Amino acid sequence: MADDLLSQQPLALMTAPRPSLDRGVTGANTEALLWLERFCSLSPASAGSKTEQSGLGLNQGLEAASLYLWGPPGSGKSFWTQAWAQEAPHCHYVDLEDSDEALAFVQLLDQVRARTWLLDNLHKAVEGERLEAALFKLFVRSAETHERLVVTADRPPLQSLLKREDLRTRLGQGLIFELQELSDSEKLQALRNRAFELGWMNQPNRSDYDSLFQFMLERLPRGLDRLTALMDAADSRALALKKPVGLNLIRSLMEGPIKNASA
User: What are the b/e assignments for 154-176, b being 16+ CB within 10 Å?
Assistant: First the structure.
């Protein structure tokens, strides 16, 4: 009964699977995500085999105190920072859109040291001047503590909504990458991967459900979090009804609630 009720929630309220590194699709963002890996690695010398083999010269520029990732909705900013927070306990994730998390960051900064601070959604930040003062304090002390700062936003640092010019300038002096939204073919493969995880098919590169996925990509909000949440709800509903997942089931979950889901 609980699964059935969950599957009937509006799409906007369905809970997406927890972000994880093995579920991520890099797309055109390889270099930016290798730098994120570097910032979140356990030590400056250990960035994992992917970084070491990349040939991107990532040993250069490690003196940078910050990594600034910006891009449109659906480009993976929150997914990748949350995934690294799950992977690396020394990385401290803060959603600046969440007033409680932002306030805790401001109040506890003097008491907390993190290898890397992952500050998500700068463009939606609350706490205003106090937050900006805390960020500047973190920049100042990072020279001594070697803490690293990763910030995500929907625009470049010099165009950010920050009032302090000295803070915008410092962010602008760090590493900056624009994240690109996944292409349709990359999203299709991500949905295949999730179908494989759910047991719908026995290989992640099969095309069994491609017509269903194409329908979802054409008719639904295109963020992977929404799409995978719908897949999980469809899986729960199919198990409860003891029926296979198909277009009719997806349609039944889309009716009504999808009209209220933002793109």
Answer: beebeebebeeeebbebbeebbb
Q: Would you state the pLDDT for residue 263?
A: 28
Residue 156 phi, psi (nearest 5): -65, 160
Residue 126, pLDDT score: 78
d(C-alpha 99, C-alpha 128), whole Å? 11
**CA distances (Å), origin 238, targets 23, 86, 215, 233, 258:** 23, 30, 18, 9, 19
Handedness of CA 235, 237, 243, 248 (dihedral sign): negative
Domain boundaries, the chain: 2-18+183-260, 26-178
Average pLDDT over residues 230-243: 91
Would you place residue 85 in the very low, low, confident or very high pLDDT band (cuts 50, 70, 90)? very high
The second-level CATH assignment, the architecture, of 26-178 is 3-Layer(aba) Sandwich (3.40)
